[in-house]
């Protein structure tokens, strides 16, 4: 006997995607798709498409696609096909075939174009019966019960999304998206390392790993030793100062965007917003970030900045909570 309806909350991220279902399942997969480069690779891998860690492990035998760069499906045939395959795979992890229908709330960056939204809907066609698209900051606020009056700063991989939340869905005027986020930080750090250690052979994946393990702002310089290959020869070097320098570059960008969001709010409401600034997304795991952001924006008055717990799952959790509480007429049927 089939159960009637499955609700899912989906955070389709640039770097990692997470799905939560009303049946209690939660899965995260790195947002990468691999297709074998040639017939030899196809025979070796014994499949036509690979996802997440599996694709990365076999990256030399595959053409790799990161179909959600900047948090939205890329607008070309190969990436759209990869996005559709990836979303199918993500949804399959929560066993949708056991249900009569699947209703999904999917999260996107704050400012996405009509084309981007259409592409999102296209990737989900045939996978779910109806969807609702909401922004990542709103899903986070809903999930942690902070929709009464807050500013949510979602520091993702592709974008940083900042929104004023005041008891209703935020409008375009309530939100701002900046491109300075995790991927931007990786490139800045990579540049600093390449400058200091001439001839070092580094990849973006290596730099991302070092950043995720050791990123910090504020306080004294820390020692962070890593192994580098310089002209094929292994060397152990300290990049702690460079990690601090790169992470500090993000602070004024985020600070200025928060100040803008506060300044454009109803003046009577500004003190409430200043006292509830919530950091989420993978970037909120940078050690010392809340204190450092608070210091950066202290010239606008008393502020309270804090980080959500388990930020990598919070968007999908909030989207799932929203999915179960919204009336059917809020959804768009996409059969």
Plain-language structure description:
With 335 residues, the protein is an alpha+beta fold. It folds into 3 domains: 3-31 and 66-140 and 313-333, ATPase, nucleotide binding domain (Nucleotidyltransferase, domain 5); 144-180 and 251-312, Nucleotidyltransferase, domain 5 (2-Layer Sandwich); 182-245, 2-Layer Sandwich (Nucleotidyltransferase, domain 5). Helices cover 38% and strands 25% of the residues. The protein has 11 helices and 17 strands. It has helices at residues 39-45, 52-57, 77-92, 114-124, 136-143, 182-196, 204-214, 240-263, 270-274, 289-296, 311-325; strands spanning 3-11, 16-21, 26-30, 33-36, 50-51, 62-65, 99-108, 130-135, 150-155, 160-165, 175-178, 200-201, 225-230, 233-238, 277-280, 305-307, 332-333. The strands form 4 sheets. A 6-stranded mixed β-sheet has the order 3-2-1-7-8-17. Helix 3 crosses helix 4 (114-124) and helix 6 (182-196) packs antiparallel against helix 8. The radius of gyration is 21 Å and the shape is flat. The model has no long low-confidence stretch (mean pLDDT 90).
